[in-house]
Amino acid sequence: MARLKLAAVSAAMAAVLSVAGWAGTATAQQAVTLKMQSTWPASLTLHEQFVYFAERVSKMTGGMLKVETQPAGAVVPAFEVLDAVSKKVIDGAHSWGAYWVGKNKTAVLFTGGPGGTFGMDFIDVMGWMYHGGGWELYQEFYRDVLKLNVVVFPILPAGPQAFGWFKRPIKDLADFKGMKCRQTGMAAEVFTAMGMRVVNMPGGEIIPSAQRGVIDCAEWVGGIEDLRLGFHNVWKYHYTPGMHENVTIGELLINGDIWKSLSPGYQEIIKSAANESFLIWWGKWQRQNADALKELQEKHKVQVLKTPDDILYEFLKTWDKLAAEEAAKNPFFKKVLESQKAYAAMVVPAKRFMFPAYDFAANYYWPPKTN
Length: 371
Prior knowledge:
The protein is an alpha/beta fold. It is built from 13 helices and 11 strands. Helix 2 runs antiparallel to helix 10 (264-298), helix 6 crosses helix 11 and helix 8 (223-229) packs across helix 10.
């Protein structure tokens, strides 16, 4: 009996010491606030996803690690956040890699890239990131190719994106040639080669430019994002889908020195919060997009039309041509592109075999409306 009592006391003491150890570790963690900026206006869901990420980080650390989220322009202009993070003007940023194609066109590939992404969808591209060497290439690109002091994580699913908004109907490839349209990233080069006159500008400048007649058409995102920006107040012709950003992923940037200063536990929480934000927001956003399309059509009388197939096929052909030309002169672009293609070559054919086409059951339960 004495031995049993001694064993019980020993077990209780061990439990107390264990709890005390955990408590000691928690109280030893230093409170940290990271000041970050997005490239998005505060009114957009893209920025709201950034805020969600910050809320999750705070909750998972009991408020010991906080992310102060600021919208585009709060500290630096929207397109300057990458350099600002590297120079520690801000601790981090929530942005989109294709904004940096002026530094090196490889940047666009880490968004998923224009074109069909070799047939991959969002989950496939995330698979390439974490199981096909993509994330390691992502770090190598910023660190060794661009010589920037940043760590980067995929965080924002922002597609599939609509083809865009137009001041008049677009029936075929010839119809949009010569039109002046807001486009970004390397996709702008593709559209230029297809005959469009492109203009690059941040999202917050699109509607004012459209109202002044500076542009005839614009691509932003689609669905809820376009509704919030107010495209329907300027144009009534909205075409979807597009091949320029059918899979497009935004990024979380953190200054390299700041990242190294964080405890391993905080680093893991940031990684987990980024992945959770991707998944949870992806699901929420799809419902928001569905609601937005209904409102655009029924309340604002927008004509939501299918993009002509000849335009989509021409985009893929033109992208493949430009990507091959860039790969021939940019070794790192070629390295990343070939990595994506190799991963897609395994995953896409298998997935096509295993997964029924989305419209198979969709058309059974929700037959397409005929005019």
